[in-house]
Amino acid sequence: MTRIIVLICSILFSVNAISDEVRVAVFKDHYEIISKSTENNNCPSPLDVELNENQMLAEYFILCNALQLAGNEFDLTPVPLPVIDRVIKAIVNQDVELSGFGVWLDDAEQANLEISSPLLDKKQFTKGFYTRKKLVAQLSEVFQPSELIAVANQNWKRDWRMLKCIGANVLHVNQYQQMFHLVNMERADILPLTFGSQNDLNRSVFGVTLYPVEGIKMTFEESSHYAVFGKSELGQKLLDSINTGMAILKQKGVLQLVYQDLGIINSATANWQTINCR
Questions:
Q1: Whole-model pTM?
Q2: Do residues 112 and 91 lie in contact, with contact meaning Cβ atoms separated by under 8 Å?
């Protein structure tokens, strides 16, 4: 009789220990690094890894850490998608359960998706106007967007809209790497980027170093959140777990430190002038 009870308990424990399988939307450009960094559901603290100013990787780590802190078992599988519209559509169609990065509030609300507590609050996300070294002094003295060529991707909807609104001549470029090289080769003048995390605020990737135009920045009005298909039992479980875990991370100051490390929350640019146009 004792052996039967033990067997039943073992079966029940095994059932309860089964993880929920969760498909997580990530951008295609970041899929490889996220997959390698989280093999076998590896989920280090974002404070313990070299993020290399990669916001997408950081927010995936924040997500998996939040879920772990909530005490529920989830088996996360990143799913690569090319652009934000495809991410939103995939969540709505239940091809994935949620985004692995922060989605702007307006995008999530328009699709009637549930959202987590904010990763970044309103006006907390800013970008600088980055250029090659020999233009920094000139543009920091006189910034005339109508005389400049800006590079961006049309799928960066808010960047694109802001650049157009301030009067810049905007060139659509698909690849992030190519944007850096176009500015460096003097075929474009400015590129909107999150600020570098070092004291000089520079951004050095793809063998190119770009420099911020001093004293000015773009400020984004919306908050960002994980977007979740909340009309399913799994979706609600995910949402509750994310919010529980994020509350712990925020209380410990982890989110603040991560975004400081990324250069997104940056005291050096706090008093710089916002030149947004609405």
A1: 0.89
A2: no
